[in-house]
Amino acid sequence: MKDYINLLKKHNLKITPQRLAILKYLDTHYTHPTVDEIYNTLKKTNPSLSKTTVYNSLEILNTHHIIQPLHITGHERRYDLRKDIHHHFLCRSCGNIQDLDINCPNIKKIQEQGYNIEEVHGYFKGICLDCQKREETHK
Predict the structure, then answer these.
(1) What residues contact 2, with CB distance under 8 A and at least 6 apart?
(2) At 50, is the secondary structure helix, strand, or coil?
(3) How confident is the model at residue 46 (pLDDT cuts 50, 70, 90)?
(4) CA dist., res. 121 & res. 10, Å (int)
(5) Whether the Cβ atoms of residue 104 and residue 96 lie closer than 8 Å to each other
């Protein structure tokens, strides 16, 4: 919890129980959740929590570059606490979104031209390994 407090302090943000809960949730759930998923889970232990508070907290955390929003599937917005440059894989079968640790060869080329890269979004879509294995066992 101390790391989340320090993170908020570093960005001169007010430390609220809601923001701490959201950061902890994102730090322990690598599912790239939606606002609804975060709200529905946190509401169970915090009955007074509103969806508006979750949404506003996520927007503030995004504005301060603490989290990043993902737009992999149409208009659905998901959230990722991981801020380093990485790509994502969306399984068309189960809907899971997984982090991919692959290097983009073009980043260095662009940086060498003087550009300061703040975000890179690389999305791969297909069938994940687990779904492929399930499909094989049902044949």
Answers:
(1) none
(2) coil
(3) very high
(4) 25
(5) no
Residue 106 CB contacts under 8 Å (≥ 6 apart), including other chains: none
Q: What is the CATH number of domain 84-139?
A: 3.30.1490.190
User: Which conformational region is residue 124 in: left (phi greater than 0), alpha (psi within -120 to 50 degrees), or beta?
Assistant: beta
Q: Is the pLDDT of residue 16 over 80?
A: yes
Burial class (CB in 10 A: 0-12, 13-18, 19+), 22: buried
Whether the Cβ atoms of residue 93 and residue 128 lie closer than 8 Å to each other:
yes
Tell me the CATH number for domain 1-82. Answer: 1.10.10.10
Q: pLDDT tens digits, residue range 109-132? A: 999 999 998 878 888 999 999 999
Look at residue 135 in the predicted model and tell me its pLDDT. Answer: 87
Structural domain boundaries of the chain? 1-82, 84-139
